[in-house]
Design a protein that fits this description.
Length: 168
């Protein structure tokens, strides 16, 4: 699970790195899952709070707490682990992997509304796999990269297709 900490550190900025490291395991889990719903200013405000109680209350006041805690503990762990699965909602995918590299509306599928979410990943020599983001500060360590295309039909993951490498 802590390999996602690397992603948070890259996304969170160097000044906040020490504060992220001081979060308890439970705090880290909900911070990681809820960070896609926070602006940069929100992340800074959350991490500047002194106590866990203050940070938890901040999430409740912002209406974010229930977004993560409405799920059972095993699902929350899967979200933090990035273990996206068929049947998940788009919100769950977003919490696990953040915003997709590309999104497309799909037609001709057996659903009222269909979307394709394309995520890029980088694989490192030590086995770490990170969701790639434009301007990634870790890409130079990458020994491989791949995409995962997530098909959402009526806001449920129906298919996940992995392809090695990607072109521009």
């Amino acid at each position: 699970m802590r390999w996602f900490l690397l992603l948070s550190l890259v996304l969170g900025g160097c000044g906040l790195e020490a504060r992220i490291k001081k979060l308890s395991e439970a705090e880290y889990m909900h911070y990681y899952a809820l960070r896609p719903f926070m602006s940069d200013d929100d992340r800074k405000a959350f991490l500047k709070l002194k106590t866990e109680e203050e940070r938890n209350q901040w999430l409740k006041d912002k209406g974010l707490w229930q977004t993560f805690y409405k799920y059972e503990p095993n699902i929350r762990q899967a979200i933090v682990d990035g273990a996206v699965q068929k049947g998940w909602t788009g919100e769950m995918v977003y919490m696990a992997w953040g915003a997709p590299f590309d999104t497309r509306k799909l037609t001709g599928r057996p659903a009222t509304k269909s979307q394709l979410l394309v995520y890029r990943f980088e694989r490192h020599e030590d086995g770490v796999v990170l969701v790639w983001t434009p301007g990634s500060k870790t890409e130079y360590k990458s020994i491989g990269r791949f995409t995962r295309s997530v098909y959402l039909d009526d806001d449920r993951v129906t298919e996940i297709v992995e392809e090695e490498d990607w072109s521009n």
